[in-house]
Write a structure and sequence with these properties.
about 260 residues; Rossmann fold; six-stranded mixed β-sheet; 14 strands; about 35% helix
Length: about 260
């Protein structure tokens, strides 16, 4: 019986230039041919991964760090952040002069115009500066929010909003999720639907938002470029993503 592979995007599937290495592309095709189900597991929004989904012909994915799950093209789970909590965070961030970016499955919207940290963070994902609407969350479901602040300032949010989860993804920004949200929870939703267990799952990642996923999976693979605290939680350490680490790990694990 085949395994189910949950593969992070940035720093795992994509190299450090945000490009898809040919070795990774070939490995995914081989894994699918060998009977394994391949799913993307990312902090990104669905609209942000459309090109790679199309290129690899993948139709199952976990987005927003577990808040939006799709199996074979069908949305099987969504978990929006409560508007009350978003309002509280928005007011607090405004008092600190910290910009926010709200995300749903179709777009991202900034709370402020032309802020250098938003420009830095969003451009690192190869996307333009978002449109601006500080009240967007009031009329749309928001599955993840980005706060642009330092790691030290993030501690203020963690103390003030224990019902939310804050996970740093960039020196200038952290993700905001509902309390307990994680890629592992999104994985479990997908596994339950296909009748498989965590023992059948092999997860690949490199960032702080991958820790729960690597912990939960039958085999957790940290990339060579992963943060030290991520490697500590992995069962296997791959080579650096820029050195074909994903494909080599899949070969060594006898997936291809």
């Amino acid at each position: 019986m085949g395994k189910i592979l949950f593969i992070d995007v940035d720093g795992t599937l994509y190299d450090t230039n945000k490009s898809l290495p040919e070795s990774a592309k070939t490995a995914i095709w081989k894994a699918k041919h060998n009977g394994h189900l391949v799913a993307i597991s990312t902090g990104r929004a669905p609209f942000m991964i459309e090109p790679v989904l199309k290129e690899l012909e993948i139709d199952s994915y976990v987005c927003f760090n577990g808040q939006y799950v799709v199996l074979k093209g069908e949305v099987i789970h969504t978990g929006a952040i409560e508007k009350e909590y978003l309002g509280e965070v928005t007011r607090f961030a405004g008092e600190q002069s910290h910009p926010l970016v709200y995300l749903d499955e179709k777009k991202m919207v900034s709370s402020i115009e032309e802020h250098p940290d938003v420009e830095t963070g969003i451009s690192s994902l190869k996307f333009p500066y978002p449109e601006v609407d500080e009240t967007y969350f009031e009329n749309h479901p928001v599955f993840q929010t980005l706060i642009f602040c330092t790691a030290e300032e993030q501690l203020q949010y963690e103390r003030s909003f224990p019902h939310l989860k804050f996970v740093r993804w960039h020196p200038v920004s952290c993700d905001v999720l509902p309390e307990g949200g994680s890629k592992a929870k999104g994985m479990q939703v997908l596994l339950d639907r296909v009748g498989m267990s965590m023992d059948d799952a092999i997860a690949f990642g490199d960032g702080l938002n991958d820790v729960e996923m690597l912990d939960a999976a039958g085999i957790g693979v940290a990339m060579g470029n992963a943060l030290p605290e991520v490697k500590e939680r992995a069962d296997y350490i791959a080579e650096h993503v820029n050195a074909g680490g994903l494909a080599k790990a899949m070969h060594e694990l006898k997936l291809i």
